[in-house]
What we know:
elongated; 4-stranded mixed sheet; 19% helix; alpha/beta
Amino acid sequence: MxxxxxxxxxxxxxxxxxxxxxxxxxxxxNLTTLPDDYxxxxxxxxxxxxxxxxxxxxxxEWEERPGPEPVTPNDEFIVxxxxxxxxxxx
Length: 90
């Protein structure tokens, strides 16, 4: 019975650690997209960090690339606000 109780206590500790709040970060930037006729997995990479438009804002230049996104463990929850230039209709 002690073994079960200690296992449950360990699992509860691990659950509390994994459910800990993440740090939220908002990034703004310009996104260059893949061609409209591209089908398949795609991911976004950061090309460079730009000077901030206003204090406290992170601005970036991003590019969309083919293929799945690489797996990288991260404790931050990042929201990326992307500005995409509209394409002229022919």
